[in-house]
Amino acid sequence: MKLTYHGTAAAEAFPGMFCTCDTCERARKAGGRNIRGRSQALVNDDLLIDFPADTCMRVLAGRLDLPHIYNCIITHSHGDHFYPRDVEMRYPVYAHMKEEKPFTFYGTAPAKALWDAEVAKLGPNEARMRMQLVKPFETFTIGRYTVTPLEADHDPTTEPVFYLISDGEKNLLYANDTGVFPEATWAWLEEHRPKLDMLSLDCTAGLSAVWRRHHMSLDVNAEVRDRLREMGCVTDDTVCYVHHFSHNCLLTYDEMVPVAAQYGFAVSYDGCEVEF
Ligand SMILES: [Zn+2]
Ligand SMILES: [Zn+2]
Ligand SMILES: [Zn+2]
Q1: What is the CA(27)–ligand 2 centre distance, in A?
Q2: Complete domains list, the chain, with CATH
Q3: How far apart are CA 111 and CA 177, in angstroms?
């Protein structure tokens, strides 16, 4: 299984669009991996996670082959994870297709409501674009993948989830925009005990110590990882990464790598490919 991080920042991007704080200034000056767009990832070459406005620039840069991807799971309805205005770009006039094939979004009710509002303006075109409603703890399949949305601790109005994704051989837990997992999610993990080949956790707060709600800091990432280890979900073979960063983590990519290593995590960056 392969995960490619296409974007690894929180909503404001990193450096922040309008921000002049010291951390953002250091990131701007350093460039390269210290520059992060809004969070998005691709499983293998065919299952997209989240759809920010930044998607377009990734396609233009030749890094994301969106015309040949047909499925996208959405974590929640915040704008840095779902930008429904670009749904129209798959409609006729904007997209010419050699083969009519639908692109399907999967998301919880608030994201589906945004999608419905967009489609109400455009008119439905099920041959091109669809959205399937998903619910926490209700496993569904997308081709060869088995996908389980798990409840996140984040803005409850977005009915946030994060995803356990299996291709039948390997398991990935990709969790952003969540604090320490809600008890319902721990109970599900306790019951099913998936052996994780890769774990990727929200690190919005980095070195801002003990950030437990809605997002996480590095020390809390370690606490979550250790609880998963006690349950047998994480082993010595699990590849552990952090993603979804903001300037509130107080560290640029270059600065974070050695610090995260002390906690047992590798640090993702835009374009980072992980085979596991
Ligand atoms: Zn976010
Ligand atoms: Zn800043
Ligand atoms: Zn969010």
Answers
A1: 9
A2: 2-275 (3.60.15.10)
A3: 15
